[in-house]
């Protein structure tokens, strides 16, 4: 059996201990089996999965990050979201640093989308379609039936891809990031 690409998607708003543990375990299993990950370059699950993969694959050989737009526009978007208070300056900085590092280590580990002035739900859903299209299987980490993760799950099912789903429920925003 050759190398497989496993799509990793999930909620970006929450940093839950169970979710973190599950992402770490799944990424370790993927790498141990000689496979790679395809993810969407967002905060939360995407960031965690990328961080964990880079710990064991410093070359980023087994990593593809699909962005909804070009890297410069995407980083600007996250800086703007921080100025709006949706995320923190630290989160925006960590994500920008991670994406720049991946691009520096292996330029084609970051797959940039079309230049866009608007990064909205449609842009993210279009990005999900690319992530799912590039992967052989999808692992989804979904908190409170989040719409973006559900979108990726539905795309994977429509494409006939094996989909593994971890579900988490959060009653309040106490653990939101």
- Compressed to H and E, one letter per element, the order equals EHEHEHHEHEHE
Give the rounded overall mean pLDDT: 93
**β-sheet strand percentage:** 15-25%
Give the strand line-up of the largest sheet: 4-3-2-1-5-6
How do you describe this structure in short?
The protein is α/β, with parallel strands linked by helices and 177 residues long.
Please describe what this structure looks like.
It is a single chain. With 177 residues, the protein is an alpha/beta fold. The protein is 47% helix and 17% strand. It contains six helices and six strands. The protein has a six-stranded parallel beta sheet, sandwiched between helices. Helix 1 (17-32) links the parallel strand 1 (5-10) and strand 2. Helix 1 (17-32) packs across helix 2 (45-56), helix 3 runs antiparallel to helix 4 and helix 5 runs parallel beside helix 6. The radius of gyration is 15 Å and the shape is globular. The N and C termini lie far apart (39 Å). 37% of the residues are buried.
